[in-house]
Amino acid sequence: MKKSVIKIKILLLIFILSPITFADKNNQLDINLIGTLAYGGGRVTCDEFVKIRSEYEQYDLFKDGIPKCEGKEVPDAWIETKNSVNSYAEIHCAIPCAVYQMPLYGALSGNYLGHIRSSQTIFLKDEIKTIKNAGNPENLYPWYREWYSFEYKGDIYFTTKRNIKKIR
Questions:
Q1: 24, 91, 92, 131, 136 from 159: Cα distances, Å
Q2: Mind listing the pLDDT tens digit for each residue in 43-101?
């Protein structure tokens, strides 16, 4: 009897002290979510994003028709490569680092949702490279095709790879 009580206490202690879930790892981030008026001032569903974005200059985002959304993530048709990171890193934002709903540069293109100020620790989800000819900034400056995704309070956000200085 004593051994089972001790085992239960140990399991309970392990459960209590176990690492926080993936979704909670970025709750400490100081993000100023202000949104852009292009999408009504905030986040929209992926399907709504695709519909709104399709009404503007399309580049190669819609070359094969309207892409399919799967959850909160970017449509696969817009991704050249995607690699899991699942690691902490340092984000350095002497100038505020923009945060977008999609890995596309610009208030309209990616639905600018806000920014991060100062240096902070961030838990990165995936490293993403968008397709060629995803937009004008991406064509002029190839680093705008390279992004990291992260989860914050249950939603997926993107920031450019250039904002991340050190992955642990």
A1: 18, 10, 11, 16, 18
A2: 999 999 999 999 998 999 999 999 999 877 899 999 999 999 999 999 999 899 999 99
Distances (CA, A) of 42 to 82, 102, 133: 25, 12, 26
Which whole-number Å values give the CA distances from 12 to 5, 6, 42, in the listed order? 10, 10, 40
Q: What is the pLDDT of residues 91-128, one digit of tens each?
A: 999 899 999 999 999 988 999 999 999 999 999 999 99
Q: Say if residue 138 is exposed, middle or buried (CB neighbours under 10 Å; 0-12, 13-18, 19+).
A: buried
**Three-class DSSP category at 17:** helix
Q: How far apart, in whole angstroms, are the C-alpha atoms of residue 131 and residue 115?
A: 24
DSSP letter for 46, please.
H
DSSP codes joined into one string, 70-131: -TTSPPGGGEEEEEEEEEEEEE--SSPEEEESSSSSSHHHHTEEEEE-S-EEEEEEEEEEEP
In this prediction the pTM is 0.83
Nearest to 152 by CA among 134, 133, 125, 132: 125
**Burial bucket for residue 48 (CB in 10 Å: 0-12, 13-18, 19+):** middle
Nearest 5 degrees, angle CA 65-CA 73-CA 38?
A: 75
